[in-house]
């Protein structure tokens, strides 16, 4: 369906405000971004800004993640023996996007530069987390040999996998380059974090 003039103007306006918000966060830090600064750069009013975004965080970090079927299938098939790593990679690739998009590159760099934002901002509404849980649950239903828990259903296992993957992803981001430019990351980084998590999960004797 051909994009109409009104839709095109709305898309451009939204993109302009996102670029302003992400650019400010990238240059000055997330805490330095304000709605007024974004509006001044994008040359829009505050009311216009809030017509497009429910909060400043949505303009900086984007809406709830959606998961491309081809992308999730590729990652899950490549890491079917470690679905926690797979879930982390699905989130990272969904944030980073495909191709050479400067907005997505800077947005991803914010996650690398300010670890913890995946938990405190992007997952706040729970929509992204719930969507990823459904992706993992569906995979387990279709590939029951990948399930690891003998005393829990696939919904429970998917929820636990995603919860672990959030912690894993946050810690991996702390170990990579400041702008995340070396993505996809060396698998050794994931192994290092997994080993640390494993040590902490065992009670001290």
Question: Helix count, per DSSP?
Answer: 11
Number of strands: 0
Radius of gyration: 19 Å
Stretches where pLDDT is under 50 for at least 5 consecutive residues are: none
- The assigned structural class equals mainly alpha
Bin the helical content: 55-70%
Query: What is the first-to-last residue Cα distance?
Result: 64 Å
Biggest β-sheet description:
none
Taken from the alpha-carbon principal axes, the silhouette is globular
Estimated share of beta-strand residues: under 5%
Instruction: Name the average pLDDT.
Output: 87
Oligomer: single chain
Characteristic key phrases:
0% strand, mainly alpha, 205 residues, 68% helix
Structure description:
By secondary structure, the protein is mainly alpha-helical. 68% of the residues lie in helices and 0% in strands. The chain has eleven helices and no strands. Helix 1 crosses helix 2. The longest helix has 24 residues. The N and C termini lie far apart (64 Å). The model has no long low-confidence stretch (mean pLDDT 87).
């Amino acid at each position: 369906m051909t994009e109409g003039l009104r839709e095109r103007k709305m898309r451009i306006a939204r993109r302009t405000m996102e670029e302003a918000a992400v650019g400010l966060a990238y240059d000055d830090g997330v805490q330095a971004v304000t709605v007024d600064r974004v509006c001044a750069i994008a040359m829009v009013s505050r009311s216009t800004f809030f017509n497009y975004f429910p909060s400043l965080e949505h303009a900086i970090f984007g809406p709830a993640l959606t998961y491309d079927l081809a992308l999730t299938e590729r990652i899950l098939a490549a890491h079917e023996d470690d679905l926690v790593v797979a879930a982390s990679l699905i989130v990272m690739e969904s944030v980073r996007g495909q191709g050479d998009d400067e907005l997505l590159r800077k947005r991803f760099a914010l996650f690398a530069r300010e670890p913890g934002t995946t938990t405190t901002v992007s997952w706040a509404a729970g929509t992204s987390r719930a969507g990823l849980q459904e992706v993992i649950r569906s995979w387990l239903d279709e590939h029951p040999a990948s399930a690891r828990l003998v005393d829990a259903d696939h919904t429970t296992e998917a929820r636990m996998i995603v919860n672990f993957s959030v912690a894993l992803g946050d810690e991996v981001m702390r170990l990579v380059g400041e702008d995340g430019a070396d993505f996809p990351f060396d698998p050794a980084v994931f192994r290092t974090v997994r080993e640390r998590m494993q040590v902490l999960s065992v009670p001290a004797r």
